[in-house]
Amino acid sequence: MPVKKDQVGQKISFPGFNYAPATEQGVVLLFGMVCYSLKFAIETVRQGFPDAIVIDYRDDPDRGFRKRVEFEFRSSKFHKQHHPIDGADIIVCWKHDWESCPKEIEVIELSKEIHAFEGGTGQVREEEPPKTVPEPKKKPDYAKSWEARVKWASQHSRDLALHLIDRLKAELPNTVQRPSFKWYAFYTQVPMTDKNRCAVVMMGKNVVRLAFRINPDTFKPDSLSTEVKGWFFPQGTERRVPVTTKNFEDVVKIARSAYEGLVSVEPKREPEKQVLRLVRADLISDTAARISLENLGTNYVLLNRYAIGSLGQHIFAPSKLIEPGKLGDITILADPGSKFEKGK
Question: Does residue 3 fall inside a structural domain?
Answer without folding.
Answer: no
